Amino acid sequence: MEQDRNLDIILKCENVSKKFQTKHRTKEVIGNINLEVRKNEFVVLFGPGQCGKTTMLNILSGLEKTTTGKVFLNDREVVEPGPDRGVVFQSISLYPWLTVMGNVEYGPKVRGINKKVRKEKAEYYIELVGLKGFENSYPNQISGGMKQRVGIARAYCNEPDVLFMDEPFSALDAQTRYLMQEEIMRIWEKEKRTVIFVTNNIEEALYLADRIILFTNCPTQIKKEYVIDLPRPRDYTSDDFLKLREEITENMAHTL
Amino acid sequence: MKKSDKKGIFLSVLSVIAFLGIWYLCTKVLKLVPENTLPDPVKVFSTFVDKFTNPNPDGGTLLQHMGASLQVALTGYIMAIVIGIPLGILMAWNKYVDRFVRPIFDLIKPIPGVAWIPLMIVIFGIGLQSKAAVVFFSAVVPCILNSYTGIRQTKEVHLWVARTFGGTRNQMLFKIAIPTALPYIMTGTRIALGAAWVAIVAAELLGSTRGLGFMIQQARGIYRTDIIIVGMLAIGICGAFLTAVLGIIERIVVKGRKSND
């Protein structure tokens, strides 16, 4: 049993900490984090506003280096960003000079995948995120929610083992945000991937997560883990949902 | 056509007619200034038409002078683009190139293009080379500056995206930094074109045997204000035409954004 569980682990963090050195002082952003993520698990990193969630995500994706500790993906140490990890960024990070199609096929193009294959792939993922018909639009011609859909399609199109999403919906209005949460669930259920999702919105966390990792304030540590086994699609107003919401919010308040 | 468009065109036509009308009124009707100081618009127009075929008094038809000016200006301008844009990009992308080029560039930058004219005439004479060099020095500065600024606008998150896809540094330069910079670079080429056109006319005024500037200068010597005005109009028309061509190129090259967006 224990053996099986280990086989399933795709991403592993061992004693990860991060300090930022400025001229006059050292700031400890991440305390000491140990984390294991199973294949196809939807993990939400949840915590107060200014804690090191984004830094943690950047470390996992390889954009930032750890001060101590190591990150392993498929038992290989993560030292730099790579195509096996896709990132959906918080800010709109589409290339404005490329069309929706150009943006989505960018990853496979960089990897040198031939034109026909990558076009087909890009078309598939554009359709998956519901943007069929917008292939030739430029980012400045589509709405914020649509842009973030393109961002998701772009990350998916490279077919990474793990997808990192850094508060991808924080810039959207509340209505669009709900819609995008449903969408991301639909996409994830259709195209299973390991997703690590950062948010500071408790409803979003509860709606999406298999497991919520509650972070403390700076220096960030894991305060508690919640395995969320409510049936999907989740109901924002069900008793269980509200109970968990209260419990986690309460727990977070103590960390501030 | 929309109603507001129609109104706009009407206003534009009205302004041209009003301008010509007042000009005609002051010269031909009221005779406020002597005819050889400021000729009336009809006279200027007939000289304009006549100058297409008449090489007198300066030894060249209007088209020959225009051709001469354009040839020199475009020679210097294209040199400035070919050298200035890659140099600006390299300076922004590589700090060693920046360190190496910057002291000289900072010194040359504030020298107006026309200040190069005497030295260039001494070195190269009054032919194509000296004037092309003057145009080059005038036009290369905005090319370098705008390319440099443009590359510096590259967003970090765009580079991150490329890194997460495993892009190399060269791919980041050509696929991200340069596309980011393109609107700025295009603006640079437009500023450079203006500077080039100013420089060529100035250079021709000071030392030349052909060109629009030369034609104006000759006409001044024999008090032919009508030819001076024709020359000025030709300079304006050429400049506007070249700017329009650049505008078309810009619209083709810069996609998904307005310039400097």
Overview of the structural elements:
The complex is a heterodimer of chains A (256) and B (261). With 256 residues, chain A is α/β, with parallel strands linked by helices. In chain A, 37% of the residues lie in helices and 25% in strands. Chain A is built from 9 helices and 10 strands. In chain A, the strands form 2 sheets. In chain A, strands 6-7-8-3-9-10 form a 6-stranded mixed β-sheet, sandwiched between helices. Chain A has a 4-stranded antiparallel β-sheet with strand order 2-1-4-5. Chain B is an all-alpha fold. Chain B has 2 domains: 1-32; 39-253, MetI-like (MetI-like fold). The longest helix of chain B is centred in the C-terminal third of the chain and has 38 residues, at 169-206. Chain B is flat. At the A-B interface, strand 6 and helix 4 of A face helix 7 and helix 8 of B.
Please give the CATH architecture of the largest domain in chain A.
3-Layer(aba) Sandwich
Outline of chain B, from the CA principal axes? flat
Q: Roughly how many Å apart are the termini of chain A?
A: 38 Å
For the biggest sheet of chain B, the summary is: none
Question: How many distinct helices of chain A?
Answer: 9
Could you tell me how far the N terminus lies from the C terminus of chain B, measured between alpha carbons in angstroms?
28 Å
Q: Which superfamily, in CATH terms, is the homologous superfamily of the largest domain in chain A?
A: P-loop containing nucleotide triphosphate hydrolases
What general outline of chain A do the C-alpha atoms trace?
A: globular
CATH superfamily of the largest domain in chain B: MetI-like
Average pLDDT of chain B, to the nearest integer?
A: 90
Largest interface: A-B, 28 and 22 residues
- Structural class based on helices, strands and sheet pairing of chain B: mainly alpha
Q: Roughly what percent helix of chain A?
A: 25-40%
Classified by CATH, the class of the largest domain in chain B is Mainly Alpha
List how many beta strands of chain B DSSP finds. Answer: 0
